[in-house]
Every structure is written in structure tokens, then in C-alpha cells.
Amino acid sequence: MRVWITGAKGLLGSALQQALLARGVEFVGTSKSDADVTDLSSLAQFYRKMGPFTHLIHCAAYTQVDLAESQPELARQVNALAPALIGSLAAEMGFRVVHISTDYVFDGLSSHPYLESDRIAPQTVYGQTKAEGETHLLAALPDACIIRTSWLFGMGPKHFVSTMIRLMLEKEEVAVVSDQRGRPTYAPDLAEAVVQALDWSGIYHVASSGKTSWHAFAEVIGAEALALNLPVRCRYIKPVLSLDYGAPAPRPLYSVLDTTKADEKLGKPLRHWKDGLKEYLLKTYA
Ligand SMILES: NC(=O)c1ccc[n+]([C@@H]2O[C@H](COP(=O)([O-])OP(=O)(O)OC[C@H]3O[C@@H](n4cnc5c(N)ncnc54)[C@H](OP(=O)(O)O)[C@@H]3O)[C@@H](O)[C@H]2O)c1
Fold it and tell me: Does the C-beta of 11 come closer than 6 Å to ligand 1?
């Protein structure tokens, strides 16, 4: 087995490198400067130079949800075109692909956790381009595996938990959206599942156990930070409604993923996000 990880320096890509390293699996991780996923000749050239690979885990993506609203073409190149190119290269060279997608492909109006078979209806440029990427990949490579996940946090500077900790150390009051519900997912736990899914085909939802709102998530982060004796200044986490928060891209109000299909294949659900959070905070701040 020899694995190629795109977006290897990103939040999930970094966790995947650790997971593969721990299992002794040979892998090569790339960034845009090694292989631009929007450029077929760049991908093919890299494969010729560094291949062959048996699997590619496609983590590279345009992930700036708000900015995507004003950069739809760039978001489309990275999120929609690249999976098509990767699918066609994989079909030609004969390697398997695990592609990472998102809860944002759904409209957020459901009252039950989203199943893989539920209708997709993205409400943002990011969600739309990620949905197009899923379709293009499956058209080029029908036996690809697509893993949709949500609300990632883990080692690295740019995610909800690290942002909350920074704000809670700086400010006495932090406002957090209270009317969006989803499943926070600890990247190292997702990475373990992705490694087990290397030979799967089809669409799967994978997320840490438990669901919450961003506001309730922030309250747990605050309590854990205090338990670790971090110098928290924040005394009040103010609940705000999405409409009042006014982000450029509307977030799904409800994006809880039903993970039963993947949980059964994995043999058990991923551990609770609160356990992942505790591990993350201990490793990062203790
Ligand atoms: N973060 C979340 O909450 C979340 C939730 C659900 C799903 N997802 C999905 O999970 C996957 C991984 O997300 P993440 O949070 O780990 O993303 P991330 O931290 O933003 O990393 C994405 C990586 O993609 C690379 N990239 C961007 N454009 C590229 C290009 N043209 N060619 C090659 N590489 C390029 C970037 O690397 P460079 O430094 O080389 O530019 C970046 O490191 C994505 O598919 C995302 O849509 C994320």
C-alpha cells in the first residue's frame, strides 16, 4: 500500500499523516506547490515522478466558506474541478480515491440527522462546489469513496476550538451562534476512520459522536479551559442568532449527520466529541 494525501498540511491532512505514520503505512503528502489539484498536468507529472500509489486521500479543498461567496470561480476550480481531474487520473492509473466532503451539501432544514441518501441542496458557494465535486468524482471513478464530515477541530491553528480559546483568553464576553446544530468532529479520530475506509466505495457520513450547538460547544470549551487553569478572561458566552451574527455565507441551521452506515462498517461509532476535545486541549495547552 502506498498513499498520496493531497492537502497534507491542512487540518485533516496533518491528522492523516500522523495516523498513517503510526500504522507504518508508506505515504506522500502534497501541498499546492508540490501538485496543484486544479491542474491535471501537475497531478500527472507528480504521479509519474513519485508514484505509483495504491490510494489517494483527497483533503485539498477551498475551505473558506465566507470568502467563497466572492470567489466562486476559484472555489469551483478547487472543490468541483479537482475531484474530476483526480477521478480521471485514478481511473487511468488504477489507484483508489477517498474524497472528503461536507455537511454543507445539505440545506440545513431537516429535523432528523441526514442520511447519505438524503437529497442534497447546498445553500452556499462552498456547499454547491463541494456537491459538484462529489458528482464529478463519481462520474469519473464510480468506485470512489466519499466521506462527508462536519465541524472539524484538531491540531492546527485555524478552527473553532483554537479560535474560541484565543477569544476567551482575550475578551470578557464572546458571542457565539446558538441556533445551528451539528456534530463536532475531532480530526485525529476522523483520520483513523478514513484510514480504515481506504478500500470502501460509495458515500459515508463520518463524525464524532454527539451533537450540539456552536454556543453549547463553546461553553464546554470554556469549562475545559478553566479546568486546565488557562488564564480565561471570558465571563460570559453570549448566545446570538445566525441572522444577527450576519456571516456572508448562510450556515445550515441543522447539519447533524447520521453516521450509522459508517459506524456499522467501522464496528463502532467514533468516540464523543467531548473526549476528542479533552485530548486536544491536553495535547495543546497543558
Ligand atoms: N474544516 C471543517 O470544518 C470541515 C468540515 C467538513 C468537511 N471538511 C472537508 O474536509 C477536507 C479537509 O478540510 P481541512 O479543514 O483539513 O482543510 P484545510 O485545513 O483548509 O486544508 C486544505 C488544504 O488544501 C490545500 N489546497 C488548496 N488549494 C489547493 C490546490 N489548488 N492544490 C493543492 N492543494 C490545495 C491547501 O494547501 P496549500 O497550503 O498547499 O494551499 C490546504 O492546506 C476538505 O475537503 C473540507 O471541505 C472540512
Answer: yes
Domain ranges of the chain: 2-156+184-208+255-270
What CATH number has the domain spanning 2-156+184-208+255-270? Answer: 3.40.50.720
What is the spatial distance between Cα 98 and Cα 206, in angstroms, rounded to a whole number? 13
Res. 157: pLDDT tops 90: no
Instruction: Give the residue-averaged pLDDT of 50-67.
Output: 97
Backbone conformation region of residue 10, classed left if phi is above 0, alpha if psi is from -120 to 50, else beta: beta
Which whole number is the average pLDDT over 131-149?
98
* pLDDT tens column, 66-103: 999 999 999 999 999 999 999 999 999 999 999 999 99
Q: Contact, 185 vs 151, CB < 8 A? A: yes
The amino acid at 98: V
Q: Hey, whose CA ends up nearest to atom 36 of ligand 1?
A: 7
Would you state the pLDDT for residue 84? Answer: 98
Respond yes or no: is residue 126 known to be catalytic.
yes
Of 126, 186, 254, 280, catalytic: 126
